[in-house]
Design goal:
The chain is of the alpha+beta class and 233 residues long. The chain is built from three helices and 14 strands. Strands 5-4-1-2-3-7-6 form a seven-stranded antiparallel β-sheet. The chain has a six-stranded antiparallel β-barrel with strand order 9-10-11-14-13-12. A hairpin with a 4-residue loop joins β6 and β7.
């Protein structure tokens, strides 16, 4: 009985610390979106009839110059027209982007959106993140929207990575052990203040799933690229 009471007291103290994680999730969740794309391809087998491939990913809403945008990865929406991109908001609404910009060199994409009651994310300073800082990854692994995983910054400044078929020329990734899987691409990496400090982009994996080595584009780089895309194309 005495040991149980001691455990209960220590568990209650620890639980109060973990309440912060719950608050971060509640704060950040409305800004996270699930993205579905349909890409039409010509098929010689079907004598030119359209063939559709489905892709899924994640994104984060931001507010810039009095308009709303979604940040995501280029490879999530690459080849899809705005009409074939579905953006699913946290409250169940589904919208299409008005305009789309993307940059192959960094794998950053930006989509302009318009709807009522949009909640933008707060953007942090990725330069201030240190190895060992706690982070959360939010997104849609395997299509399971608004999933949350937890870990730390494992390394900074990862470059010259072989990302398979992807040709990301300009690399300066944050590495994290927060679980990242297919479908997390484009979703935010968030610090304990609820600020987005990275866009989850890739994993190093022999199996195709999470092995504790994920990579995020620092949000400071994303902000520069996004602003240039929006203002100058």
């Amino acid at each position: 009985e005495q040991m149980f009471q001691q455990l209960s007291q220590e568990a209650n103290a620890l639980q109060r610390q973990f309440e912060l994680i719950k608050k971060v999730v509640q704060f950040a969740k409305p800004a996270v979106v699930h993205i579905e794309t349909s890409i039409s391809e010509s098929s010689n087998i079907n004598f030119g009839s359209p063939r559709f491939t489905e892709e899924a990913g994640s994104g984060a809403i931001i507010h810039l110059n009095d308009k709303y945008y979604v940040l995501t990865n280029r490879h999530v929406i690459d080849g899809a027209s705005p009409g074939n991109i579905k953006i699913n908001l946290w409250d169940g609404r589904q919208i299409h982007p008005r305009k789309v910009w993307s940059d192959s060199g960094t794998d950053v994409a930006v989509m302009e959106i318009a709807s009522r009651n949009l909640v933008p994310a707060r953007l942090g300073n990725s330069d201030q993140m240190e190895i060992g800082d706690f982070v959360l990854a939010m997104g849609s692994p395997f299509g399971l929207s608004h999933s949350v995983t937890f870990g730390i910054i494992s390394a900074k400044g990862r470059r010259d990575l072989n990302l398979g078929s992807s040709t990301v020329k300009f690399q300066d990734f944050l590495q994290t052990d927060a679980a990242i899987n297919p479908g997390n691409s484009g979703g935010p990496l968030i610090n304990l203040r609820g600020e987005v400090i990275g866009i989850n982009t890739a994993i190093a994996s022999n199996s195709g799933g999470n092995e504790g080595i994920g990579f995020s584009i620092p949000i400071n780089m994303v902000k520069i690229i996004a602003r240039q895309l929006i203002e100058h194309g």
